[in-house]
Amino acid sequence: MSDPLMIDADATRWAPGDRDGLPLLVMLHGYGSDENDLFGLVPFLPDGIAVASVAAPLTPPWPSPGRSWYPIEGMESRHPDAVTAAARALLHWLDAAASDAPKIALLGFSQGAAVSLQAMRLDAARFGAIVALSGYATPGDLPDDEELRTSQPRVFWGRGTHDDVIPQALIDHTAQWLPDHSELTGRVYPGLTHSVSEDELQDVRVFLEKWRDGSAD
Question: Does a structural domain hold residue 1?
Answer without folding.
Answer: no
